[in-house]
Amino acid sequence: MLFNSINFAIFLPVIFVLYWSLNGKKIIYQNGLLLIASYFFYSCWNYKFLFLLVFSTLLDFYSGLKIENSNNKNSRLFWFWFSIVVNLGLLAVLKYYNFFVSSFSELLSNFGLKTNISSLNIILPVGISFYTFHGLSYVIDVYKNKIKAEKNFIDYSVFVSFFPLLVAGPIERATHLLPQIKTKRHFEYANAVDGLRQILWGFFKKVVIADNCAEYANLIFNNSEDYSGSSHALGAVLFAFQIYGDFSGYSDIALGSARLFGIELLHNFNYPYFSRDIAEFWRRWHISLSSWFKDYLYIPLGGSSGGVWFRVRNTFIIFIISGFWHGSNWTFIVWGFLNALFIMPSIIFKTNRDHIDIVAKGKSFPSFKEFISIVSTFTLTVFAWIFFRAENLGAALDYISKIFSKSFWNIPEVFPYNIFVLLLFFILIEWNTRDSKFTLQHFGISWPRYSRITFYLLISACCLMYSGKEEKFIYFQF
Amino acid sequence: MKKFVINICWYSALLILVFYTVSYVLDKYINDCKNFKIDSNIEYIVFGHSQSACAYNDSLISNFKNYSSNGEGYFYTYFKVKKVLECNRDVKKIFVEFTNNQFSQFAENRIWGKYMPGLLPKYFTLIDQYGLFLLCKKAPFEVLKALYVSERLKLNYLIANDSNYLSYNKMGGYILRVGSLKQKQIDSLILLNNKKKIAGLDYTTENIDYLEKISNLCKLNGVKLYFVRSPIPLFNQYNNDSLFFSIYKKKFQEIPFVDLKKFPLKNYDFNDNVHLNYLGSIKVSIFMDSLLKSGVLKTDTFQKWIDNYILKNS
Questions:
Q1: For B15-72, what is each residue's pLDDT tens digit?
Q2: Fewer CB near the last or first residue (10 Å), C or N of chain A?
Q3: pTM for this predicted structure
Q4: Which residue(s) pair with B94 in the sheet?
């Protein structure tokens, strides 16, 4: 079930009303309903893969209990590694097996050797990377005694499969979400309205910004030979807005939906395209994944505690793995590598924490220096996105060579004025609200009631008009 | 909680009101007859799906216009014909593609099936409440989605100040296809066709009902209606001819039927197993031009005239 589908528009209010009608009863009823709703939500995509989700949940739940109840160090270690290996093994087989096989065969063929390993004809279960990482973080935290193992299977299952975050995150932590699931929730009007505002802006980002940009980005990326360098550059910029609108829009809908049920999810995006350097960009883009890698990979590897080369090594490792997490294609690995490369000056000169606050805080406009930093960071990001979007490395390199050709100075064949108007409106609103947790949190709050409602109606009408296509979310494939 | 639900209901009602007000204003703008005017010299119009869209190059046929559109069932054609006749009182002769693939259960694809997302948004503004009710019965969610897309399309026309709603890419037109069938393709298509022969046992009645409505509409407006069957490759002849002709005899016998099914063409005149490419369409269009100019269509012997031409040139 897609967030931008009519099915979801029916599903969400029905579950919302049922959920709050159970308010006076024991919390197990509310959690039970959330679990049933989440499994139903997942089954709408492919019910056959529900067993995998249940299996993964059972595995981590049981491993967590075993780790906590074992007095023996070896037994703890066994259950810890058992869970890690099975989780990552499933991910490796279902997501990466074909990639490994084809890469291995290509490598051997370079030496004139032929292999007969056949690839698997399997569908990648939606959300597997996300729920596997949920489970992994839980088992690691239990092993490290950061949290107690959960004894209630329903509560734990809701933590893994809560429908707003099930298929594309944010990647939650047991330390953050489980206590909320175990605590009785009460309906708060202001919180629910806030949630709806966040959902509304999420829809706007997805159906109005991302899907419109996608139309032209796809046209240029899929018919590269028909377009000039300038159109290629434009296509890459449009893709940058597409992926931002798509993924941050998804996150906003997820966070807003969770808030309707009285649950706060982790913040996932914080105006990344206003970043002044790549280090800041990565503190603002897909925050739940970046912090996951920081806590469970970067810090265990030694983090920033060693010398320069130690930090450089660790940074490359997490960026390349992060790239690989996105998909089984060399393009994602190169995308991760490029981002590691772009962040290097900040790592080497220890300037990676120079820009913690949002740019031009309390001001209407950035300084000239800040503006140049934002534009150059955005340009580097757009460059890396080309690899993320391209079908393969060859196509990405062709695309880039087209940008750096003479035809870059031609007038682009594609010039969607309507998209530029929408983008300008979008950027202006986001710029004006960049110190809020989400765009519509404070925007328009001080306006007269009727002006505010008119503004929301305008955004809602825009979303309706653009919602007929029901385009998939990019991150569903990961 | 109660206050929240009430406010949501109010907001939704307000949103629906705003949406329908915008929709009403846009419909008023789009439905204006000036958006459906065709040149005064046009005497003949052909309506249909992709077969006729690819067959008749209207730039080669005098006083002739092609308003066929990909995947279109008679349901959509009816509303298009209705609007065109309402806004162009001088049009007195129309052709409607009358071919076998409209007489199968798969024809529902052309109304509420897989072609609907491409067709309904364009025609939404023309469809009456009975038509919408029929679609809502069959595919309610798709209708809702098409409504949203339709409003966006209309808004785009308004912003672009584009006044001709009938022009190509909106409600049809000649489709130029390049590329010819190769023997290898023909072999695989023959195999495929054998597997997927039109059953001919069942058909979508609603599609035929709307063809009858077109016929009645033409009678009411004093417009001469002709059926036309465009050529298809010899290797891909339909096997539901008996059903096809039984329906024709039962319901449409008084309507003249221009049958070009066996029009002499080579495989290289086709783009695939049903559509003509530009080479084929040139031949058919030149023939059509001469047929219209000859005046033979006014007589009862026109099919004999056509058959003689086919015999001579086969």
A1: 999 988 988 888 888 888 888 888 888 999 999 999 999 999 999 999 999 999 988 9
A2: N
A3: 0.82
A4: B45, B225
**pLDDT tens for residues A10-51?**
999 999 999 999 987 888 999 999 999 999 999 998 888 899
B31 neighbors B123 (Cβ within 8 angstroms):
no
Q: How many CB atoms lie under 10 A from the CB of residue B190?
A: 13
Query: Across the beta sheet with B224-229, what order do the strands follow?
Result: B64-66, B44-47, B93-97, B224-229, B257-259
Nearest to B50 by CA among B165, B167, B172, B205: B172
Output the DSSP codes for A418-442. Answer: HHHHHHHHHHHHHHHTTTSSSTTTT
Q: What six digits make up the tokens of B179?
A: 């590329």
User: Which of B1, B19, B145 has the CB atom closest to A20's CB atom?
Assistant: B1
Percent of chain B exceeding pLDDT 70 equals 94
Tokens linked to B178: 């390049």
What is the Cα–Cα distance from A229 to A412, expressed in whole angstroms?
Answer: 8
Catalytic residue set of A: 326
Distance, in Å, from the CA atom of B95 to the CA atom of B52, rounded to the nearest integer, reads: 10
Look at residue B217 in the predicted model and tell me its pLDDT.
95
Cα–Cα–Cα angle for B289, B295, B296, rounded to 5 degrees: 100
Alpha-carbon distance of A64 to A49, in angstroms, equals 23
> In this structure, are residues A243 and A221 in contact, taking their beta carbons and an 8 Å threshold?
no
Q: Tell me whether A187 touches chain B (CB under 8 Å).
A: yes
**How close B1 comes to chain A (CA, Å)?**
7
